[in-house]
Amino acid sequence: MGDPKTILVTGGSGLVGKAIQKVTQDEKRPDETWIFVGSKDANLCDFQATKQLFEKHKPTHVIHLAAMVGGLFHNMSHNLDFLVPWLFLS
């Protein structure tokens, strides 16, 4: 067994997140804790909300699947810009 891992999956309520959740439930590993979060858990466009999410769960690994989904024409018409803050938590 290796060091304990806490894996935070953003976009955990989406299609790919649900698939990963199914696989991790079927093939549990005792040294891994998987946490799946969706947009209702934290607004990842808000730095403070994102920081609080990381402080709460203290992940050792992150799988970032969160996205604004609306289709090509929706995204083009809203001219969306995205910001991904980098957090350095000790």
Automatic annotation (TrEMBL):
<dbReference type="InterPro" id="IPR036291">
    <property type="entry name" value="NAD(P)-bd_dom_sf"/>
</dbReference>
<protein>
    <recommendedName>
        <fullName>NAD-dependent epimerase/dehydratase domain-containing protein</fullName>
    </recommendedName>
</protein>
<dbReference type="GO" id="GO:0050577">
    <property type="term" value="F:GDP-L-fucose synthase activity"/>
</dbReference>
<feature type="domain" description="NAD-dependent epimerase/dehydratase">
    <location>
        <begin position="7"/>
        <end position="83"/>
    </location>
</feature>
<dbReference type="Pfam" id="PF01370">
    <property type="entry name" value="Epimerase"/>
</dbReference>
<dbReference type="InterPro" id="IPR001509">
    <property type="entry name" value="Epimerase_deHydtase"/>
</dbReference>
